[in-house]
Amino acid sequence: MTDKLIYKEFIGTVHFSTSDEVFFGKIEGVNDLVTFEAKTVPKLKKAFKEAVEDYLDLCKETGKEVFKSFKGSFNIRLNPELHSKLFQNATLEGKTLNQYVKEAIIDKLSNEDGKPSYNTV
Q1: Nearby residues of 1 by Cβ (< 8 Å), 6 or more positions away
Q2: Helix locations, the chain, DSSP H
Q3: Is the dihedral of CA 96, 97, 100, 102 positive or negative?
Q4: Rounded distance, CA 83 to CA 75, Å?
Q5: Taking the complete model, does pTM exceed 0.85, yes or no?
Q6: What is residue 82's three-state secondary structure?
Q7: What is d(CA 81, CA 68) in angstroms, rounded to the nearest whole number?
Q8: What are phi and psi of 3, to 5 degrees?
Q9: Over the stretch 70-119, which tens digit does the pLDDT of each residue have?
Q10: Are 8 and 15 in contact (CB under 8 A)?
Q11: Which long-range CB contacts under 8 A does 116-119 form with residues at least 24 apart?
């Protein structure tokens, strides 16, 4: 089971409210809070697509950037043992910790087959 939907370049996270008996979600990675909801999965997928299209229209009308911008740096928290092992491996390869982690991320992303394992709408 997955709790993600993909439409165009957008990812929607999905949850279920037992008290309201409704699926609800939001679009991730955008500059605003954009939500959608429905009582059934087919209607939820449709609501997600409509939310994406409405948001694209709004951004176009207002001249707003669609996606969040990223500055290219982020913090990561590791346990000390893993941090030490990463440092040792990076040093043995003659790399900085930043270079080593960046290459590991690139390697992880390049090993994916390019097909999302999520529910593409």
Answers
A1: none
A2: 41-62, 80-92, 97-110
A3: negative
A4: 13
A5: no
A6: helix
A7: 33
A8: -120, 30
A9: 898 889 999 999 999 999 999 999 999 999 999 999 988 887 665 555 56
A10: no
A11: 116/6, 117/2, 118/2, 118/4, 118/5, 118/6, 118/11, 119/2, 119/4, 119/5, 119/6, 119/45
